[in-house]
């Protein structure tokens, strides 16, 4: 490898530039200055010669006068020769003196020119000296800056060395952590395989138990049928078969049968229990209140406390032994039928607007939050067993499917997402025209209801992922981001509250508006159907709850 040339020092560069400028500005005038000096010396010599000649001329004039005085006694010829010779000599001397004066004038002019040129050169020399002083001060500033930069470079080199050392140590730590991560992944995979095997065994046991229970129920049913066949009964024809409780009702409420103040502030959620007697309401007073519906009246049955913010969602399990509530304090809570708080499910970082029992059983809870996640909670292990990152705030959700492994969630970004609890990505998405405020599913798991902020309710066929009808009315307005609409138990009717304080009931089969129930004075936030009859309960933001029926 070739040796790299040393970089020139900036001092040598400045010195070289000054020498070059000196050569350019001084050397061309050195000959002129030497000739000027020679002319001054010649002028001095001519002055001295002129003085000598003047002295000789004075002597000659004196001699001439003496000769004129003494010439009278001398002979005429010899006198005239001497006088003529002296005159010639004087004439030559005068000519030489004139030439000397002429040369003196020329030299004087030349001296004046040289003096002016010399002054110019002296001015240029002073300017050059000033520039040299400026360059020297600039050189000193550069030297100071150089020393500062050298100190900065030393400091930066020390920092770079420190960073390199830190990088090396971090790289070593990273390598060690990566090895640990590999080991943990291997252990996790082994545990997962063991867990899957254990779950498969458990599933087989559950299937065996289910088969045994089914066989036992079939045997019991056969025994009951046999006993019933052996008994003699009288068959009585009736005009109104709807009076029998085992027949499903086929209608909708038409008027208010009871109203009461449910909470001390806004009422955000309401839910009928499976038996049709228990009603739970949740409000901004951080309480869930329980009510018993008896003879078209409502009696308070208890209060559930423990929330630190408004209650936004309520669900009741199939046995009416547990109640779950989603709250604005980033948690959802589970109470038992004895009014005791059993579980506080914390882990969300935003308001929990939806909480439901999975399949109506009090073993698992799924919750949706403003933190854009869905969480599945196991109440037996009291832990979150799955977190789904939805990408948008969840306003409501339901569970569906024969195994209750499908979660359907409505979101702030106008999308309905279908999730399989065994996967991390949605299995399907449906985009609507407004923010989704609530979702509900018919009992046969074929039709999905979606209420949105564009003041419409969409009915979606889940099997075809297609909007089959749109429910709307001229004066119907969705009041809140958590406005809850609901299917009737037989799936034939849909009820939803409006901003004008009315409850709208549509026919789900033909999208016809059947009736408008008016009793509220404020915007209606939620409503729920009684599973045993055509009763409906709605709540509003002015702490009022209304029980609707047919009188």
Which secondary structure elements does this structure contain, and how are they paired or packed?
Elements: H1 10-26, H2 30-70, H3 76-230, E1 255-261, E2 267-272, E3 278-283, E4 288-294, E5 297-304, E6 311-316, E7 322-327, E8 331-336, E9 341-346, E10 352-357, E11 364-369, E12 373-378, E13 383-389, E14 394-400, E15 406-411, E16 415-420, E17 428-431, E18 436-441, E19 447-452, E20 456-461, E21 466-471, E22 486-487, E23 493-497, E24 502-507, E25 513-518, E26 524-529, E27 536-540, E28 544-549
Antiparallel strand pairs: 1-28, 2-3, 3-4, 4-5, 6-7, 7-8, 8-9, 10-11, 11-12, 12-13, 14-15, 15-16, 16-17, 18-19, 19-20, 20-21, 22-23, 23-24, 24-25, 26-27, 27-28
Tell me what you see in this structure.
The chain is α+β, with helices and mostly antiparallel strands. 39% of the residues lie in helices and 30% in strands. It has 3 helices and 28 strands. The chain has helices at residues 10-26, 30-70, 76-230; strands at 255-261, 267-272, 278-283, 288-294, 297-304, 311-316, 322-327, 331-336, 341-346, 352-357, 364-369, 373-378, 383-389, 394-400, 406-411, 415-420, 428-431, 436-441, 447-452, 456-461, 466-471, 486-487, 493-497, 502-507, 513-518, 524-529, 536-540, 544-549. The strands form 7 sheets. Strands 1-28-27-26 form a 4-stranded antiparallel sheet, with no helix packed on it. The protein has a 4-stranded antiparallel sheet with strand order 2-3-4-5, with no helix packed on it. Strand 11 and strand 12 form a beta hairpin. Helix 1 (10-26) runs antiparallel to helix 3 and helix 2 (30-70) packs antiparallel against helix 3 (76-230). The longest helix has 155 residues, at 76-230. The two termini are 105 Å apart. Mean pLDDT is 85; it is low at 233-248.
